[in-house]
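Quick question, first post here. What does this chain look like in 3D?
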Amino acid sequence: MKKSYLLITTLLLIQYTGNASAIDYFVMDFEDGKQPVSTPSPSWSLPANFAETYGPGNFFNVTNSTAHSGSYSLRFTYEARNGQCNTCGVTTLAHKSDLNNVNYFVADTGQDLTLADGAAAAVGRIVYNKTNGFSTWEIVSIGNEVATNDKLMLKPLSAGITNATAEFNGNDDVQIARQCGVDGTIGGKDNNRRSDCNIVIHWFENIPVGVQNPGDSIFRRQYLKAEVTSPLIHQKLHYFKPDHGGPNTKNVIMFADSLNTSELIPVLTGLDKYGAKSLYEPGRNGVPASLTLERGVWYYIEEQYKAATQDLVTDPTGNTYNTDGEYRMWISKSGEEDTVGATPIIELTNITMPPIRGGGGLHMSFWGNIQHWVHTRGSWYLDDYVISNAKIGKATGGNTDIAPPSSPNTN
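> Answer (accepted):
Ran it through. Tokens below.
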């Protein structure tokens, strides 16, 4: 069994490498040093709202502090927007409409900001002025302006990421942070859970209908380097969402789970609806127990999603799929793609995973959100990012740059 398994893998690799009809859907190496705009690259694109999370001090920014190949990579940092995603929930309110150029906050609604079911404001808690570039402030006292407890006296902690003057103006969107472990509101169960930061998911656009038909494969390769300094994170690297009219539509999620300050483990989940196991991680369901990702090292990660064919005999509507879908994941350090990275660390066959539909809707995301219960610091770096219909393999001109960046905030 083991010999035939390896032989099948080898034959597949030869077939993919020699595919004359290979089509790249998305290619980005960030070498122009500019924001990845919402134009096709070459056909799929990032959505226009990517710009809302891009730039100095924001979640994403092109940097020359480290790269897998060339001079640039894309950094994602948890400390963006002055740590907004490390809050345990916020209450968003508007500053009084006719009150400008002040260093305090007055609720435009006139509501009592100290009430637990309202803003739950209290001395020492943090306030973000979203309109002012997420400038941060600490509540020093609570008073009355036009109603009871509708005014927060504040002291500035951090300037906004837009370099605007730290102040409040009429109708500014203002966020009053909840206190972790006391009255956090993320997830509804654990009041110590931090924000999932859903705004950074970013689903690809311009995915045409029929880009993946039953029996077709989509390959996704990226190089990643983690400079994350906090444990107990669940960073979802992306979502893949097969889309059809039947009952089995389910997100497929691959994320890295932080064990400690020196290594991460890759985890695959979400394929159980298609006949696979519910969880694949080192030492479980055939994944090598020794598989970990060191921080500060570039890794090659490639995945294959081969869609199952339709069982049109049983279900003429096309919502039932045969057990001929496949999933593979290759992981290695940069420079070991042709050795360690030549054999999948996960190889699943006989699954009923459908294709992504294409057209409007959510199909595959560029990046994923995060679940975390401690203050998370540090960054991920992305480079040599390709999505194709054929096996991609190693990036040409790659290197094994393992030096840490000079600073998580260096542009």
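The first strand starts at residue 24 and ends at 28.
The radius of gyration is 24 Å.
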